[in-house]
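Researcher: Structure for this, please.
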Amino acid sequence: MSKRYLWVDVETTGLDAKWDYLLEAAFVFTDTDLNIISEHQTLFRPVRNPYEQEPTEQSERYEWKKTWLDRMNPYVLEMHTVNGLISDIVNRWNDNNGLTRPDQHRNVAITEVIRQVDALRNHDILLAGSSVAFDHDVLKNNNMDYTILRQLHYRRLDVSSIKEDLLDTDPELVHAYQNSRKVVSHRAMDDIKESINELRFYREHREVKENV
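Model: Predicted structure, token format:
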């Protein structure tokens, strides 16, 4: 059975996969040659658990917003301020423009991911990304276990693990990539594209070395 990769990246208020808020997620389907099949991305209302009541009054919304912002340590707060993620969420929230809670399945992007997984059911679909175990756990804790994760192959493709091996076996290759890479934005879709490019770089340059 042929394979496909489902690349995923999430942005959150911190590194606690269970309790931190999910802010943004992106998904990219590729074949094993890293050709893109489809792309999907979405922002979420930062809600930690599906039973938390959503405020309706403007004053309550301010306190609600303050709550999820206060969960970020100074490093994460600065990062998501600079990359525009916080302002994107606040503006979409204030405009009442389609932000869904992570546990709600009417989200258009998530619906499309589920549909794409179903369309590729004749393939083994491997979850892919960088340090993708964290992304997996965040999605699982936001009720995407049965709808997406359990439809995937049990194996994963983790670019971070490949890099760790190369640091032991071919550190010059890793350093060459790091010198060529662009600045990481810490936005979900950009980070996925960066992971795909990193894997492509390792593949292409190892092939060159093997042919020398």
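Researcher: Any notable elements?
Model: The first helix runs from residue 58 to 70. The two ends are 33 Å apart (CA to CA).
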